[in-house]
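Re: beginner question about structure tokens

> Can someone show what the tokenized structure looks like for a real chain? I only ever see the sequence side.

Sure, here's an example I had lying around. Input first:
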Amino acid sequence: MPYCTLFTAYCSLVSIIYMKYVHGYSGRESVRLVDQAVTLSELLHGDTFYGRGKIVLEAGCGVGAQTVLLAGHSPEARITSIDISEESLAKAQALVRKHKIKNVTFQQADIFDLPFKNESFDHVFICFVLEHLPDPLKALASLKKVLKKGGTLTAIEGDHGSAYFHPESMLAKKTIQCLIDIQAQMGGDSLIGRRLYPLLKQAAFRSVTTSPRVVYADASRPAMVKGFTLNTFIAMVEGVKDQAIANKMITKAEWTKGIRELYQSAEKDGTFNYTFFKAVAFK
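And the corresponding structure tokens:
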């Protein structure tokens, strides 16, 4: 969530001061994000629920893929979803309207400079955002300010280093490493899932609990093979092809062979594994 398309002029400017989204803002990326959210809905969101009247901040809503699930699981909560990209917010609003969701309002805002009073929200939810930020600890500190005492922050992140698959392939692993390295060069951290617990502790949250959410796909789980292995993960890796080759991280021949071998993990004798991490912490 596809990738490495050109930013719009606006997003190019704000990325300098805020974040660089390695996956880009293309229409295909929007589709990938929605596919990912739907496929992983129960795994990642099944145990997140906010009660009647609770005021929730979704930080970095993107195109609204997670917003729809968040609002659907907590229909009586009042959700404010923010993002720095006007383009993404427009897509998120359209998606929410499509699903006839009424309990979400949208606002353009910067996580590092939030336009809310201290202790404005009962809960904060942030998903697949910290990995793209140059200073995730600073972002958590900013979010903590607008969270009420006793409120919770829920954070969900992936960890590309957790991907393993059958048949094994060194070149397939090399294509994944290209994505990891490119994101690092842009100031992000695609391995951040393993860091959620220490990050939240450093931000002085209390009662931090973190749980691994393992994705496993094989031919007996065709929906997961299609929704995650193909449409989420491999699509994500394929998006950095041009940049990886241009930066001489990998040759064109190596890339072609590596991606072909990565696709074998989605075939009838293949398997694919990946771990997300979900943390809940109290202020």
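Each token stands for a local structural state, so reading them left to right follows the chain. DSSP finds eleven helices and eight strands in the chain.
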